[in-house]
Amino acid sequence: MRMLSVFLAAIFLVSANLDAQTLKSGLWKGQLLRADGHHIVFNFDVSYHNRRPVIRIHNAQERLEVRQINLKGDSVFIEMPFFEASFALELQADGSLRGNWIKGTAGNNLVMPFMAKYGKEPRFLPGAPPRFRVSGKWELEIIRPNGTTRPAIAELEQKGSRLTGTILTPTGDYRYLDGIVKGDSLFLSTFNGSHVYFISAGIKDENTISGGGIYAGPTTVEKLSGRRNDSAGLSREAFAIHVKPGAGPLDFRFPDLDGNMVGIRDERFQNKVVIIQLMGSWCPNCMDETNFLSAYYKKNFTRGLEIISLAYEYSTDVERSRKSLKKLQQRFAVTYPMLITGVTSSDTLRTEKTLPQLSPIKAFPSLIFIGRDGGVKKVHSGFYGPATGDQYTNFIKEFEDTVESLLKD
């Protein structure tokens, strides 16, 4: 395989000898390979527009479009539209693809072997007919590798053997999970460039799953069990953000993606309702929230509404942060300021360095609602996206009710 630096240098070049038959049009099955055999599988399709390849990654009803694809000879480089994620691949003699998935992190790059095969092979091969129906809400117990537990809820929908849904935590969701029920077992997976999960569990009866595991990335394993509970809920109190007693109005000033300094006290934001989004380009739930906010802003900015994103990235490298955030800005046509705080998401002093008027920031994304008088009126921690169904609908209603009340105030 050619050196990765050669691939990186060619990302934005249009190959002069692009062969429209290099990648076959139609359905493919990809696998991110784990050493323990719990591979993370997903389907994608390839089509061509103006002789340029387009990939769509399948996760339940979502189709994630990828257009940054460079082909030259037997080399294929794919850059994901979000996150610092890419594939460096070689086309094999049998038409399959092999190589690596590479993702930027706060430390060294994460690398996983990857292979993909052309053909109409489903995500999970069919097996014995389902013995149980698992549609509904499940209260989960997830045990981390260090032995501690974390609360979560699964919301699942089963049609025949097909299984879709998501997992909710106190601050977000796993987005679109896609899979199958075979006999007394369930299998789910997802891949969007950052979320990389394979989930399996045994179904003991209509109300109990056990012996399960959540396999994330190349090595992480968490134990999983659960019981059906239609009234299950999750508390966000531990992740709530508050204004410190006696603190004055927020006061910050950071560069936008073009290097212009923008501050909350600029004339543009005076006597306006301002929503501040605390986010990072590494965060899949932030991606979904940005999609929602961008569309909402375009419909309502003339009413006296402004939005500002404050980005907490993997590193303090401004150019690296700008490049990653630019993907979000361009994909969702964001027209409000996206500011680079220069403080990492893992910095234990991130709040003191950026928004010292607040109690510690514990969840990304979070929203801060500021009234026309400049005061903080509400803070909403976490985000449940479109994969969560009613939870997403409830978020939209709460969000719109809050904005409407502030605009009328």
From TrEMBL:
Keyword Chloroplast: no
Thioredoxin domain boundaries: 243-401
Record key words, sorted: Cytochrome c-type biogenesis, Disulfide bond, Redox-active center, Signal
Domain of life: Bacteria
SUPFAM superfamilies registered for this protein in UniProt: Thioredoxin-like
One Pfam family this sequence matches: Redoxin
Signal sequence, renumbered to the chain: 1-20
Classification via InterPro entries: Redoxin, Thioredoxin-like_sf, Thioredoxin_domain, Thioredoxin_ResA/DsbE_sf
Compartments it resides in: Cell envelope
UniProt main location, coarse: other
Keyword Disulfide bond: yes
UniProt cross-references to PANTHER family, sorted A to Z: THIOL:DISULFIDE INTERCHANGE PROTEIN DSBE
Protein name: Thioredoxin domain-containing protein
Organism in which the protein naturally occurs: Flavihumibacter stibioxidans
Classification of source organism: Bacteria, Pseudomonadati, Bacteroidota, Chitinophagia, Chitinophagales
